[in-house]
From TrEMBL:
GO terms of molecular function: copper ion binding; hydrolase activity; oxidoreductase activity; S-methyl-5-thioadenosine phosphorylase activity
Zinc in keyword set: yes
Keywords: Copper, Hydrolase, Metal-binding, Oxidoreductase, Transferase, Zinc
Cofactor(s) needed by this chain: Zn(2+); Cu(2+)
Organism: Nocardia amikacinitolerans
Reactions catalysed: adenosine + H2O + H(+) = inosine + NH4(+); inosine + phosphate = alpha-D-ribose 1-phosphate + hypoxanthine; adenosine + phosphate = alpha-D-ribose 1-phosphate + adenine; S-methyl-5'-thioadenosine + phosphate = 5-(methylsulfanyl)-alpha-D-ribose 1-phosphate + adenine
Name under which the protein is recorded: Purine nucleoside phosphorylase
InterPro entries: Cu_polyphenol_OxRdtase, Cu_polyphenol_OxRdtase_sf, Cytotoxic_necrot_fac-like_cat
One of the Pfam families matching this protein, by short name: Cu-oxidase_4
Similarity comment: family membership: Belongs to the purine nucleoside phosphorylase YfiH/LACC1 family.
Assembly behavior: Homodimer.
Amino acid sequence: MTAAHTLTVRRVTTTRAGGFSAPPYDSFNLGDHVGDDPEAVRRNRERLAAGIGLTPDRLVWMEQIHGRAVEIVDGPRPEPVPATDALVTTVPNLALVTLSADCVPILLSDDEAGVIAAVHAGRIGARIGIVPRVLDAMVSVGARLDRVGAFLGPAASGRQYEVPAAMRDDVEKHLPGSATTTVRGTPALDLRAGIRRQLTEAGIAAVAEDPRCTIEDKTLFSHRRGAPTGRIAGVIWIEGPR
């Protein structure tokens, strides 16, 4: 049996409860770029690390810019990985973190190969192809697409994510399956539907989804519902020997 077969992949999605931040970031805000008190964010990140059984230095963060850059990381990073919206690793006990407040957090893994990824996929990143880029990066370090499983975290739902019709049509052209209408009958985007289709067409058979809408669910942060606000985290790591 290889080492990869002995490893377990863990995934966590946070809510806004249980932290140290004051309103409007109350209370478990994990974003350090939204205007919150840096000390509160530091304490929240320490609590996240402790909650998943790791030390804070084993969490890898990104400077998310709504792009399609992917970084393969092989160890802790003292600072957020600059100008990056997806991380890939094969290193056990190294947690990859994606932050969101309406965008789609995607957690991917090939459990047999021991390859994981965390992706921040907003409207722009999904439109310009962050998902195919991260799948290519995973394959480059040993993953096989037919073994990869995907989890789509809480995000703005098509029921609420209203956009101009021209924007909806443009995103649909690049991310088929994402065009929809809101509960009010106005043009909208369902990014998770488009991403699910994109993953399936790439050969990813196992796609799970947290159905919660960040705009509707007040236990989650939502930039659309009220800015400024905090960020929830999607976290993935390979649990290995300490």
